[in-house]
Each structure stands twice: as C-alpha cells, then as structure tokens.
Amino acid sequence: MGMSEFYGHGDEAESVATIRRAIDLGVDFLDTADMYGPFVNEELVGRAIAGRRDEVVLATKFGIERLPDGTRVGINGRPEYVRRACDASLKRLGVERIDLYYQHRVDRSTPIEETVAAMAGLVAAGKVAHLGLSEASPETIRRAHAVHPITALQSEWSLWSRDPETNGVLETVRELGIGFVAYSPLGRGFLSGEITSTDDLAPGDFRRHNPRFAGDNLTRNLLLVRAVRDLAAKRGVTASQVALAWVLARGDDVVPIPGTKRRRYLEENVAAAVLELDPSELAALEEAFPPGATAGDRYADLSAIEQ
User: Fold this and answer.
1) Active-site entry in 7, 36, 102, 265
2) Can you tell me the distance from the alpha carbon of 34 to that of 42, in angstroms, rounded to the nearest whole number?
3) Cβ proximity of 116 and 86 under 8 Å
4) pTM
5) Are 113 and 78 in contact (CB under 8 A)?
6) Is 265 assigned a catalytic role?
7) Kind and range of the H or E run holding 131
C-alpha cells in the first residue's frame, strides 16, 4: 500500500526492487488492493512479480470503490461489482488467478451472503483460489463462512491495536479454522520508535491526520513505546523487530504483513522471523500494552469498520 499512496512519496524503482528482494529472501505472501493508488499498486506488483508468479501467494482486495482521480465512491459489495472488480484486478496484476481475494470492507447495504456468493462464483470460474474478509465482525464472519469457506480474515493487530483479542474476532476465526492476517503489525510505523513528532512524517502522509499521531494522544503513546525500545536495546535488535516478534508469537495461524517501501527496512523486518521472545519478555510487553491502552482511535473515521 505504502508504495503507491498514504505514506508520502514513492519510488517505483525501489518499490519493485524491494518486492523482488523480498521474494529472494523467501517472503512468498504479497498483499495489495485495487484501491491503493488507486489501481496503480496492483500494476506495480504485477510488474514486480513478472516471471516469478509461481513463487508468491498473491492477495488483493475489492470493496472500497474509488474513481481514477482518487475520489472515494463508498463501500460496494454488490455481486455485479464483485465480478467487475475481480476482472479489473486480474488485468492490472497480469495474472490468470488471484490466490486470496478479500472483501476489503463490509458493505452494510448488501447482505454478506450475496457478496460471498458472488465471490464463490469467482472460485468456480477459476479466477480466485481462496476467499477472505477484512475488518469484519464475528457475526459477519460466521454468515460468510456458511456460504463459502473463508480462508483468511485480515484486520489490524499489533501491540498497540489489540482489538481482535477482545472483540471476539480472534476467537471466532480460530473456532472456524480461518487464518488471521495482521495488517499494520508495526502500528503504522509507530512501534519502530522512530516517530516522535508529526514533523517526522512526510507531507501528504495520512498519519498526520490520524488521531493516534496527534497532540496529547501522541505524547501518551510515546510513553508506551518505551517498553518496546527498552527490550530491543536489551536484546540488541530493533524496536520494529520486537514488535513483529510479538505478533509472530501469537500463533502459527497468524501472519503479519508489515509494509515497507525500501529494501533496508524489508531486510530488518524479515530478520524478525528468527527472533524469539521468551515468556517473561512477552508478558512484559503485554503488561505495557494492555488492550485499550493506546490513546486515540485507529482511524479518523471508523464508520467503515464493523465493531
């Protein structure tokens, strides 16, 4: 996502090199969406994996409808839109099949059964291998899963966003055998410890308007990050690696998808895969970051997220 929008200026050559370096390092799960850019991120990913398609599991999303100029139309889960969006994504990605196709946000005006039935039709047609949901409530997950097996649920999960542990989502997906894909496992970069002011963010970076990065919320959240930085210093690793190791320790059914635009941060993130935190370290982090401790909402507008 950040390679094309939301996190300041991008560098396409570096982005492509980063994706290819990730594959070289054994990273085989790539996540994009039609609305990133909008549209251009799928094209970028397609160029990056050209000639290496069989080495990756490719995930993309539909449902946050936008115009080419970036205007947001709204959330759309209507069956005819599902089919149209999938065909457009396949073309931009330059592939014949999407491995994991997510509904990006739940459309409250369209029954989830109708949306998932259309997605199931894409599986039957060979255009999609597996289905996913993003930011869905336990009830919606169950209703969707009853129509067609849901393979993955993607929601924000990190030390500073522990909602899945308290809102019933984690319990539900584990009961149903659905994998959990944790986006923003670094707390939108905040858990790296390198952001201490909005001045550290590029012009145009959406975090400048995110409640957790503003005013008193930022001041309170900086106090939380101390625990991550202190443990990182003790272990001789980076704060980002500690934050990722915490997510990785949640279980084999949890896959974090940290985003980066640069190879050097990619390599730092990949190294977290071999960092094992002991029970006392995990407990200390969880004590420092209890659910609800982070100041501010995850987004300025939470209306598109099922609670």
Assistant:
1) 36
2) 6
3) no
4) 0.94
5) no
6) no
7) strand 128-134
Give the full edge-to-edge strand order of the sheet including 152-156: 29-31, 57-62, 98-103, 128-134, 152-156, 179-183, 254-257
* Per-position pLDDT tens, the chain of length 307: 889 887 777 899 999 999 999 999 999 999 999 999 999 999 999 999 999 999 999 999 999 999 999 999 999 999 999 999 999 999 999 999 999 999 999 999 999 999 999 999 999 999 999 999 999 999 999 999 999 999 999 999 999 999 999 999 999 999 999 999 999 999 999 999 988 888 888 888 888 989 999 999 999 999 999 999 999 999 999 999 999 999 999 999 999 999 999 999 999 999 999 999 999 999 999 999 999 999 999 988 877 777 5
3-state DSSP assignment of residue 159: coil
Cβ neighbours of 255 (radius 10 Å):
19
